[in-house]
Design goal:
Keywords: Membrane, Transmembrane, Transmembrane helix. This is EAL domain-containing protein. Pfam families: EAL, GGDEF, LapD_MoxY_N. With about 650 residues, the protein is α/β, with parallel strands linked by helices. Helix content is about 55%, strand content about 15%. It contains 20 helices and 18 strands. It has helices spanning about 5-60, 60-75, 105-110, 140-190, 205-240, 250-265, 280-285, 290-305, 330-355, 375-395, 410-425, 465-475, 480-495, 510, 515-525, 540-545, 545-560, 575-580, 600-615, 630-635, and strands at about 80-85, 90-95, 120-125, 130-135, 270-275, 315, 320-325, 365-370, 400, 430-435, 450-455, 500-505, 535-540, 560-570, 585-590, 620, 640-645, 650. The strands form 3 sheets. The protein has an 8-stranded mixed β-barrel with strand order 10-11-12-13-14-15-16-17.
Length: about 650
């Protein structure tokens, strides 16, 4: 029960006690007053009768006595009248039952006993006592008057109690309203949201409580902000280039290896390998400050270009070398993109150099290579460096390695096959197990199974995600693929209630699609096995669609479905979104895990990510576990679960 209701109930109880006390006192005082009235009334009647009946009593005239007594008794105010002689002999007696008004309830009569006093008056005649008169008034009058008084008291109490209840409730709500804000602050704080009350109450005690709560919120927020800044500083030191802010060589090559060598889900891509021409002489000719500014310009141009692609890998490998991997560009798009990039860099170079004489035709050269799902990161970098050497030797702005024929399945037939497979839901699912803390690769009970969508090529051979995902995105079929995967997963859960938790990777396109959201809400609202599904969204997709993801997260909460952040820890925007989004778990990106058993910086950074997740009551999982040494290191860092080929390679969901 709320404090307002408790105070209201206590106030009402006090009013009831006051009513009972008032009714008791009133009934007692009224009863005493009425008894006094009945006593006076009986005494007056006895005196009057004694004076009037003296001659009749002296003459022993019973008929006259009866006539007189009956005339008085018929008024209805008397219960008993006795007339006796000097010896005490009853000459005439008149009685009637103690009639009580029918409006007076019997319980009231039983509760309050009123016995009217019997008054006596001696009768004298010619200075001699000749008898006495005994008169007892009727109690019905007293009961009627007392009951009427009690009724009026109850009616007025009901009216005043209703008015008082409304007034007191409003007053208590106004006075205690700051406590509601304190309650909201406490709930928000448990969810790692920080709310301060701007309205400070005037009541001294409440003012102290609100100020103390606001101060605690400030301190907790400061603590989390300091923790986030510490981790961000660690990220910048270990994984970012200090001059341009781009990922450094270590981070860029790790992300390339993660996407191309391990996950193989990038699909057909285009790598730009850019080198600033003769950086040493450039520093000498322009000066360190202008040369540094030029390096920043090159980095910003590449960063802007990377933002045009939803998935990209960008980094500065050395002082003069940059790489940018984007989804596959056709010949026309590649020519326009690279030409525009070189022209922009040339213009900035000329603006910086001013009147300085620099005998270089191109301030940068670019080598271009293409990748498919079978291309490894080292091969792609080697091919790009060979193309860069050709561009430098010929003094061309850029050169392309190989021909366009190297693109896998890059034909209208393949596009049509992929479109038909997705539109007809001709997909099958594989699972990759995620094992809880302390489990080994020999344990066969996963905490979660991540679902991997696959299709068959024209020859009936299963394709990796990289072979068809880029085509699906190009054709705008990602939402359709997500629908097919969700339906297939729910069907499997319905047919296999003991299948455990199934994790689905949802695309950014689906989160932005209102029709998909409506479809998903209708599908899971009454589904018996919806709790089997965990929904994951990559960190990049979340940060690019934060408002849409927040709405979708609330939908998952309403349906008791868990939500996770995939590929966590590599986006430069930081972790502030975790406070508001409050996912159930994160999956630390495999590029941070691959060498965790070899590099102390990776261990420290991953340890910080786990710590910040646990401080927000979020589980932390790790991807790309291939060695026992990795698993041992992560268990020491108190990871909640691990996923990778150490625990088993993907298998068909039906198995």
């Amino acid at each position: 029960m709320s404090l307002v209701k408790q105070l209201g109930a206590a106030t009402f109880a006090v009013l009831i006690l006051l009513l009972l006390g008032s009714a008791y006192l009133m009934s007692n005082s009224s009863k005493t007053m009425l008894l006094n009235q009945l006593e006076s009334h009986g005494q007056d009647a006895a005196t009057h009768l004694g004076l009037y009946l003296a001659p009749s009593i002296a003459a022993n005239d019973v008929a006259g006595i009866e006539t007189t007594v009956n005339a008085i008794f018929d008024s209805g105010f008397y219960q008993r009248i006795d007339i006796s002689d000097s010896s005490g002999k009853i000459l005439f007696s008149k009685t009637t039952p103690p009639l009580i008004d029918e409006n007076v309830p019997s319980w009231f009569v039983d509760l309050i006993e009123i016995t009217p006093p019997q008054m006596t008056r001696d009768v004298s005649h010619q200075w001699n006592k000749i008898g006495s008169v005994h008169v007892q008034s009727r109690a019905g009058y007293a009961y009627s008057k007392l009951w009427q008084g009690i009724q009026n008291t109850l009616i007025w109490f009901g009216i005043l109690a209703a008015v008082s209840a409304i007034a007191i409730s409003g007053l208590l709500f106004y006075i205690l309203r700051p406590l509601k804000g304190v309650e909201e602050q406490a709930e928000a704080l448990s969810e790692k949201r920080f709310i301060e009350q701007s309205r400070i109450p005037g009541t001294r005690e409440l003012k102290r409580v609100v100020n103390a709560m606001n101060q605690m919120v400030k301190q907790v927020r400061l603590m989390f902000d300091e923790q986030s800044r510490h981790i961000e500083e660690l990220r910048r030191t270990a994984y970012q280039d200090s001059l341009t802010g781009l990922p450094n060589q270590r981070a860029a090559e790790a992300q390339l290896a993660e996407r191309l060598d391990y996950r193989q889900d990038f699909g057909n891509g285009t790598l730009l390998y850019l080198r600033i021409t003769d950086l040493a002489n450039l520093n000498k000719d322009l000066g360190m400050e202008k040369a540094s500014n030029f390096i920043k310009v090159v980095g910003s141009k590449l960063e802007k270009l990377s933002q045009a692609s939803e998935q990209s890998i960008l980094g500065r490998l050395t002082g003069a070398d940059f790489i940018l991997l984007v989804h596959r560009l056709d010949d026309d798009s590649l020519k326009r993109t690279v030409s525009q990039l070189c022209a922009d860099i040339q213009a900035n170079f000329e603006a910086l150099s001013g009147s300085a004489v620099i005998e270089k035709h191109w301030p940068v050269h670019i080598g271009v290579s293409h990748s498919n799902d079978m291309t490894g990161s080292n091969q792609l970098l080697t091919e790009a460096r060979l193309a860069l050497s050709d561009a430098e030797e010929d003094d061309q702005s850029y050169a392309i390695y190989g021909s366009d024929a190297k693109a896998l399945q890059d034909s209208n037939t393949w596009h049509q096959h992929v479109a038909d497979s997705v539109s007809q839901a001709q997909i099958f699912l594989q699972t990759l197990p995620l094992m809880g803390t302390g489990t080994s690769h020999s344990n066969t009970v996963p905490e979660q199974q991540e679902l991997l969508a696959r299709i068959l090529d024209q020859h009936g051979t299963p394709c990796t995600a990289g072979e068809f995902l880029s085509v699906i995105k190009e054709l705008g079929l990602m939402v359709m693929l997500d629908r097919a995967v969700i339906q297939r997963a729910l069907e499997h859960a319905s047919q296999n209630p003991k299948c455990g938790k199934l994790a689905i990777n949802l695309s950014a396109e689906a989160v932005r699609d209102q029709d998909f959201i409506a479809w998903f809400k209708a599908l899971v609202s009454d589904h018996d096995y919806k709790q089997h599904l965990h929904v994951e969204i990559s960190e990049s997709a979340i940060l690019n669609n934060l408002d849409d993801v927040r709405v979708f997260r609330e939908l998952l909460k309403e349906n008791a479905m868990e939500f996770g952040v995939d590929n966590f820890g590599i986006h430069p925007a930081g972790f502030a979104y975790l406070y508001n989004l409050q996912p159930d778990y994160i999956k630390i990106d495999g590029s941070l895990i691959r060498k965790i058993d070899q590099q102390a910086e990776d261990r420290f950074f991953v340890s910080s990510l786990i710590s910040i997740a646990h401080s927000l009551s979020i589980k932390a999982y790790a991807e790309h576990i291939e060695r026992e040494t990795q698993l041992n290191e992560l268990n020491q860092l108190q990871i909640d679960g691990t996923q990778g080929w150490l625990h088993g390679k993907p298998e068909a969901l039906e198995n």
